[in-house]
Amino acid sequence: MNQADLSKLVSALRIAVKPKPRRFSCPEGPAGRLEKLRATVTALVKYERIELNHPRAEEAQGYAERLISDAIRNGDCHKHTMEMADYWLNEKQLVHKLFKVLAPRYQNYNSSFTRLVLGPKTYPGYYVGTAILELKGNPFPALQPETHNYHYWLHNVLLEEAKKEFRSARQDRNAGTTESVTAES
Amino acid sequence: MAGTRFQLLSTFSRQFSSLNNVTTVQPKIRIDEIRGRRLSIFDKEHKRQQDLIPRLEKIEVTYEGLNDEKTTLVMNKGVSTPYNCAQHINEQLLKRSVVAEVNGEIWDMHRAIPADCTLKLLHMKPEDPHQATLVNKAFWRSCSFLLGAIVESAFQDEISVCLHSFPPANVRSGSFVYDVQLNLNDWVPSQNDLRQIAASFQKFVRQDHIFQRLDVDSSVALKMFEDNAFKAEQIPHIATKSSTGRSVTVYRVGDHIDISRGPMIASSSLVGRCSIAAIHKLNSKLYRFQGVALPSEIHINHFAFSVLESRARKLNPARTPELKSN
């Protein structure tokens, strides 16, 4: 009962986080894994859209999300946040970008800050395939076409009318049954 | 697989199961002959109108595409159609466009452009709600038209089929309609009959017939439809309502010709999934054929389509025609 509200300590990420971290095969052990992820997070902040193997992209996405949400939450005067930014970003000019460009950009976002899209697969090739990881609000053209489904398209007009008719029929039925019940009583 | 099934169905499509009680009275003129005669009149009139243009003049058509990008095309006056303009632009437009908008007026894809204009090509998934209602109406009207074409040729020769008319397109009613007079008493169509008509509808639509438009004089129209008492009766009314007071617009799809004010869709292949939902008896010998169809561009799952089908089975509330010639 006396447990602290977790979302006040750590900001809740808007992506699905896997319960266990992936262990990449690297001779340097966990330190080497972090080294790889640092390189990816740095590249993501620098280029805003990168193409890489899917497991690594998915793993790095969580770290990038956490870094940005901390930067928004605590600002650049917070000691721990600044240390984290210093750790995760290998190129130090990117620390400025994180606090002065990305934090204001994502201030009012209700969704995640990054987007992970499955990339093309080469056949025959490595079965997991590639992925494209990008920061939202980047200046590049969109990866996927915008899909619309307007209510005034033919099938939606037909379905809407069918729905109306169904509802009115149900209402009539309900009214009929209540009337018969009252008549009986 | 689907192809073979269609073939099988179509071989049976002219023999309906529940028509055994029909009494043959007199040998009727076969529908193919009537159609052949109408077509020859249509072709002759079309040729006559084309010959009225002494020499080709050029017009400038400004096509307004995506993001208001403008393209100017030099086309032939009174000959080139929006379809020809699309041929110069790109193939997707050619296949996708349902109707055109010429100077803000809705225009058939296969209707000649008379003067300099701005042109827009509309498809079945427009961004603008006003355009969507126009396009949907054109589609629904064309489906009624096609239904007429199918019904006219679907029955055996001894059953006389006389197309009456179809009411103005109303998408919200849930079904497109054609009212037809059949000399059958108390015909109750079975589920199989409906399926066979739907199959021949689908087969006809897949043949990719264009909707050809022709404005003809009312006398020519009367000659065309002299076999059909209802149409002959309607033609003078339609002619007086037209701008010149004498012209009637007819459309041709494949070998079927019918009267309609239009506009129609560009080609029958723009119709995708379809189903003949019900045939209701209105009054003596007049039957209302009802169906529902979707454009080939729009796909919905089978459950949603079954919802539309079950709604289309109810009698369409459109006005029932009154029969005078009985």
Structure description:
Chain B: This is TGS domain-containing protein. Chain B: Residues 55-123 form the TGS domain. Chain A is mainly α. Chain A has helices spanning 6-9, 30-47, 54-74, 79-88, 93-105, 154-184, and strands spanning 49-53, 114-118, 130-135. Chain A has a 3-stranded antiparallel sheet with strand order 1-3-2, covered by helices on one side. Chain A is elongated, with a radius of gyration of 25 Å. Chain A starts with 5 loop residues before the first helix and ends with a helix. The mean pLDDT of chain A is 91. Chain B has helices at residues 2-12, 31-51, 82-89, 91-96, 129-154, 191-205, 218-224, 229-241, 302-312, and strands at 58-64, 70-76, 99-102, 105-107, 117-122, 161-165, 176-182, 211-217, 247-253, 256-259, 271-283, 286-295. Chain B has a 5-stranded mixed sheet, with helices on both faces. In chain B, strands 6-7-12-11 form a 4-stranded antiparallel sheet, sandwiched between helices. The N and C termini of chain B lie far apart (47 Å). Residues 1-26 of chain B have low confidence and may be disordered. The A-B interface holds A 148, 150, 152-155, 157-159, 161-162, 165 and B 124-125, 127, 129, 132-133, 135-136, 139, 171-174, 292, 294-295, 298, 300, 304, 307-308, 311.
